[in-house]
Design goal:
The strands form two sheets. A six-stranded mixed sheet has the order 4-3-2-1-10-11. The protein is about 35% helix and about 25% strand. It contains seven helices and eleven strands. The structure holds ligand LP5 and manganese (II) ion (MN). Ligand LP5 binds near residues 131, 158, 162 and 167.
Length: about 250
Amino acid sequence: MTDAALFISDLHLTPERPLPVRLFYRFIQEVAPHAQALYVLGDFLEAWVGDDALLEPFYRDLATALKSLSEQGVLLFFLPGNRDFLVGPSFSNATGLTLLPDPSRIDLFGMPTLLTHGDQFCTDDVAYQDFRRQVRDPAWQQHFLAQPLQQRLALAKALRERSEHAKADKKPAIMDVNGEAIRAMLASEALNPPIRRIIHGHTHRPARHEHEFNGLSVERWVLPDWYESGGYLACDADGCRLSDFP
Ligand code: LP5
Ligand code: MN
């Protein structure tokens, strides 16, 4: 699909996991330049503790590669995930990514489409939603960002460990989307024209689902993670399809 819009999420890029990093560099050389736009729907980075982390060569190199893609004329967008919600204006400037709020509505080749990371749909995961409310609070973020970089990195590491422990005790179904939460988001976006497509990541369960809302069908695409191989959704005027990027 030339001139398609591409969607990726959940790459969780970190110097500690080289495979997705290699895949991503190849993706932005081989696939993305043929697209009209690339949307990154969160969890692009393993953990982001503030834009001053851009001083690290690993992130500077990523930013340079993205910037060069944007200079080739590909429109770049970023919507935050639960790992990288602290991405800010310096990251945006360095990469050429335009920051979008979560959720964001776009007109995708005539199709009213809702983009979101997807974690807000996981309302059965009550412990996570409580945690989310806390860390998305602007006052909490201001306080966190005022701490020295090394301290923030240490906190993020501790939090990652707690998250892995917590997940080990959660039933898989709890960490999937809740149908009522999807309906609630569709209802809050009920302004004309009605949403006909949702694209999100987070659950790492790539698929196409169909919902019915107010008598209309709504297709919901779930993006894959990049742990063992890459993958993306490509959409054009004829529709969308998921592709692997091995
Ligand atoms: O991320 P993943 O896939 O492992 O699991 C998510 C939910 N976990 C998270 C936490 C992140 O992994 C932590 C990394 C954040 C990096 C950003 C750094 C900037 C802020 C740093 C703040 C110190 O999002 C997980 C879900 C899962 O998705 C599936 O949906 O289940 O949720 C949890 O595991 C949350 C636990 O259930 C509750 C954690 C309580 C921790 C409370 C500590 C609060 C005080 C913070 C200070 C350390
Ligand atoms: Mn996520």
